[in-house]
Amino acid sequence: MTTLPVVLVTGASSGIGRACVDAFLAQGARVIAAARRVDRLELLHDENPNTVLPVAMDVRDRAGVTAALAALPEAWNTIDILVNNAGLAAGRGPVHTDDPDNWDRMLDTNVRGLLNVSSCVLPRMVERGSGHVINIGSNAGREVYPGGTVYCATKAAVERITRGMRMDVLGSGVRISQVDPGMVQTEFSLVRFDGDSSAADAVYDGVTPLLPSDIAEVVTWIASRPPHVVIADVLVYPTDQAGSGKLARRKS
Questions:
Q1: Active-site residue, 145 included
Q2: Given 145, 151, 204, 237, which residue is catalytic?
Q3: Which of 22, 144, 185, 246 could form a disulfide bond with 209, CB atoms 3.0-4.6 angstroms apart?
Q4: What is the residue range of the signal peptide feature (predicted)?
């Protein structure tokens, strides 16, 4: 009997993470769905009791991440693909007036969180000579826009970490990739605007944004390449976008 591949997705309770869970399940994988919102994970498990393992995880908590991954059942502890998706943007003001707590949330989640999870998964991948890490970055890591100084810096760090990680595992058989989405309609803006749904919805006025499933399709395509092929990085925009703040808004 062939063992189904195991995929670990962080930030799996919504948005791109949830879409990646669904996409990998559709391809016949088993998925470790990791996130802080356990209630959503349990619903996901109820829908897929044999192929989804819910894991409560705050990627910012290194000790918690280590403990959660060390406690995986034997049938799940060989992770073939890691999708480092957990991330957020907090605050939107100039850096000299922004709340430093916002900086900490972004640095701890977007940068340290990615490292915390990767440091637990990568050693075993390198040891057995196979595995794939796919980091979800952002077009914001390639350019800077007003009000996004620290967020853009965290996503630029993801790009540097991804490139360095690829060099560090060179020759091991482990593949390292990155996907940089542009505007995607998720809870991202709702979080950034502190739950103000009107302000979050206004971000997408007159624009047809990407859907989480669009990015999940790219992620699963990258993961499905033959072992001798690594898609190093992919930048994905909706047709109505050509960069941060560069949008073609249609009048209603």
A1: no
A2: 151
A3: 185
A4: none
